[in-house]
Amino acid sequence: MGGKGKDEPAESKFIYMKVVGGEPVAAATLAPKCGPLGMPPKKVGDDITNATKDWKSIKVPVEVEVVNRQITVRVLPSASSLIQKALGKAPRVRPRDKETHYTHEGNLDFEAIVDIAKQLEHKSMAKTFAGTVKQILGTCNSIGITVDGHSGKDAQALLEKGHWNLPN
Asked: Quick check: 59 and 81 in contact, CB under 8 A?
């Protein structure tokens, strides 16, 4: 009598994690998260790898939804992962030591920044679209990407001076 009836809706469980796109996720990493939900870590890892194959060698957040032991994997790209994808460079070879940090080199045009800001506007806490664009420019500054040849900080100043027009 204490079990769930057929008329009761299934409960959704979510797992959030950051993975390197297109690379297999270690089953040992997934086991503590998937075990309590009754999901085999190997299958979850394979589904995550398939869902992130478009984001090869880019660290990207994913959401794994489990309903009735069925898995749905959704990629939730962050600003830095969208910027790296917009650069369109060849996948990077990751060094084995954890101490090495990347500095990305590249130049994006302002239109690409506006496109990224449109994709992330729903996540942003900025009051205006210009604020969202400034957040993306700040991310460019922190990962070492230039915008039309200007650093992120300089691009923010140019935006405030009216150098670029933003769509409404």
From this structure: yes
* CB of 144 closer than 8 Å to CB of 104: yes
Eight-state DSSP code of residue 47: H
- Are 85 and 52 members of one domain? no
Q: Is residue 49 part of a domain?
A: yes
Distances (CA, A) of 154 to 35, 72, 86: 49, 41, 20
Determine, yes or no, domain membership for 131: yes
Statement: the pTM of the whole predicted model exceeds 0.70: yes
| Terminal C-alpha separation, the chain | 58
Amino acid letter for position 99:
E
Q: Where residue 144 sits, what CATH number does that domain have?
A: 1.10.10.250
Write out the residue range of the structural domain in which residue 125 sits. 79-89+103-161
52 CB-near residues (< 8 Å, 6+ apart):
19, 20, 21, 22, 60, 62, 73, 75
| Number of neighbouring beta carbons within 10 Å of residue 81 | 20
Domain co-membership, 83 together with 44: no
For the stretch 55-87, pLDDT in tens is: 888 889 999 998 888 889 999 998 988 988 888
